[in-house]
Specification:
The chain has about 500 residues and is α/β, with parallel strands linked by helices. It folds into four domains: about 110 residues, Tetrapyrrole methylase, N-terminal domain (Cobalt-precorrin-4 Transmethylase, domain 1, 3-Layer(aba) Sandwich), CATH 3.40.1010; about 130 residues, Tetrapyrrole methylase, C-terminal domain (Methyltransferase, Cobalt-precorrin-4 Transmethylase, Domain 2, 2-Layer Sandwich), CATH 3.30.950.10; about 110 residues, 3-Layer(aba) Sandwich (Rossmann fold), CATH 3.40.50.10090; about 120 residues, 3-Layer(aba) Sandwich (Rossmann fold). Helix 2 crosses helix 3 and helix 11 packs parallel to helix 12. The longest helix is centred in the first third of the chain and has 14 residues.
């Protein structure tokens, strides 16, 4: 039985512009075939085990010829029930989606097209340029500046484009920008009409150049703007200084590195992107199963018999309850245990399971949790001879265990996970960091610091360092590094807020 192939438009770059249907299908995909313009953050939506095939294209650099992509989709349909072909922008707007659909039709493969937001509209909008405005124009023209290699002579209607009224948007035309603009002017296009080029539109890397039709090519070369870029010609370009809403974002134009695990990165990445940052996800660690799975399972099964459950991290909460619900069906089976959390982030994760904490320090460090037990312990009858299950990762500091035992608590350990180095570099982010640098690197745990340093990537010149809290800051100090900013509270929102104030 043949599977089905979905040709999905990924939109112009911002993952938030992906359609709901597109994301739902990505979450179901057994195989993903994706382009270079598909946002790397979208890969986090895939289910475990989904095969990923990169067929990205850049000017003059194709990972896989189009004919091979067509055959790959046919073969994938024979192997998988759901194949997603993820294409930048919209599949049918200069995206060769029509060729892929024809190949699938010829092979008798069921397929479906899920349209995406085209960069022809979104690119200008993200640069403060409306493609239509009733004070300036009531139509727009979209054309490609790139002719197919199979064509023996140009087929672009230069005269028709030059004569067209309203806004003109050119996609994939940067390699021949000067020649195309010159040809348009020779055909009657006004040389003094405002013009703009928008590189990496609708991403954190976006930057724009505004000039005129006659001067745009020189301005682009001077600014070093290259493909991928959208070119806009028309009176509406003059609105950009007033309508460029992204320029007001506090992190606009700054490249920020996120070193959290791939599963956790999206929370921080999305909040940084909402402030205009160019986010580079470089996971340095991943959360793996504990070394002794049997001991972990037995500790979870016995959890309802303890007086206290003490959680050291959100990861510990997630792993604990994944195992808990594999054994128990109802959260009420957790019993009458009181709950302690090391900080607001851990408490927020517990709240997802309907559990409130009895003890939590404002500062998310082990020493503060112990101090909170000392301050409030008497309200709960003290900790002496009280049974406690401490849920944590294998690399956790021993402060909680040692200090509670000193206070005569009966403490057992539940090693819920192991933090290991992330060896997979999706999208070549390590290479990009080495070559392009970054403005800010964020560290959300001691593990992210140690494993980042193990990569031996030199800190880019002028790069700032952001720490989520004092323990992470102390680990940075072990490597002779001092953060430029530390989150007041040990939470992701607090870290983001601190970064927004970083000058």
């Amino acid at each position: 039985m043949k599977g089905k192939v979905y040709l999905i438009g990924a939109g112009p770059g911002d993952p938030g512009l992906m359609t709901l249907k597109g994301r739902e299908l990505m979450e179901q995909a057994d195989c993903l075939v994706y382009d270079a313009l598909a946002a790397p953050g979208m890969l986090a939506w895939l289910k475990p085990g989904c095969e990923q095939v990169y067929v990205g294209k850049r000017a003059g650099n194709h990972a896989m010829p189009q004919e091979e992509i067509n055959q790959l989709l046919v073969k994938s349909a024979a192997k998988y029930a759901c194949t997603v072909r993820l294409k930048g922008g919209d599949p049918y707007v200069f995206g060769r989606g029509g060729e892929e659909a024809l190949a699938l039709h010829a092979a008798g493969i069921p397929f479906e097209v899920v349209p995406g937001v085209s960069s022809a509209i979104a690119g200008p909008a993200y640069a403060g340029i409306p493609v239509t405005h009733r004070d300036f124009c009531n139509q727009f023209t979209v054309f490609t500046g790139h002719e197919g290699a199979h064509k023996t002579e140009p087929t672009l209607d230069i005269a028709g484009i030059a004569a067209a009224k309203g806004t003109k948007v050119m996609l994939m035309g940067m390699s021949r920008l000067r020649e195309t603009l010159q040809a348009l002017m020779e055909a009657g296009q006004g040389a003094d009409v405002p013009a703009a080029a928008i590189q990496w539109a609708a991403t954190g890397r976006q930057r724009s150049v505004v000039a005129t039709v006659a001067t745009l090519a020189d301005a682009v070369e001077a600014a070093g703007v290259t493909s991928p870029a959208v070119v806009v010609l028309g009176e509406v370009v003059q609105l950009a200084p007033q309508l460029d809403w992204r320029a007001a974002m506090p992190l606009c134009g700054r490249r920020v590195v996120v070193t959290r695990t791939r599963e956790q990165a999206s929370e921080l990445s999305s909040q940084l992107a909402a402030l205009g940052a160019d986010v580079m996800e470089l996971p340095t660690i991943r959360i793996a199963a504990p070394t002794d799975k049997r001991d972990f399972a037995e500790a979870v099964v016995d959890a309802p018999h303890y007086d206290w459950l003490v959680f050291s991290s959100p990861n510990g909460v997630r792993r604990f309850f994944q195992a808990f619900f594999a054994v128990y069906e109802d959260i009420r089976e957790i019993g009458g245990a009181r709950i302690a959390a090391v900080g607001p982030g851990t408490a927020a994760e517990l709240k997802k399971y309907g559990l409130m904490v009895d003890i939590m320090p404002q500062k998310a460090v082990a020493e503060e949790l112990i101090a909170e037990f000392d301050r409030k312990g008497d309200e709960f009858g003290g900790v002496a001879n009280v049974t406690m299950l401490w849920v944590h990762g294998e690399q956790a500091r021993r402060v909680i265990y040692d200090e509670l035992m000193k206070r005569q608590a009966i403490v057992d350990e539940c090693l819920a996970y192991n933090t290991v180095p992330e060896t997979e570099d999706v999208g070549g982010v390590q290479k990009r960091l080495r070559e392009e640098g970054a403005d800010i690197i964020t560290f959300t745990s001691s593990s992210t610091v140690r494993h980042f340093m193990a990569l031996n990537i030199p800190l880019p010149k002028g790069c700032r360092i952001a720490s989520i809290g004092p323990v992470t800051t102390a680990t940075l100090a072990e490597y002779g590094l001092k953060p430029d900013v530390e989150a007041p509270e040990h939470t992701i929102p607090s870290l983001v807020a601190a970064l927004a104030t970083l000058k």
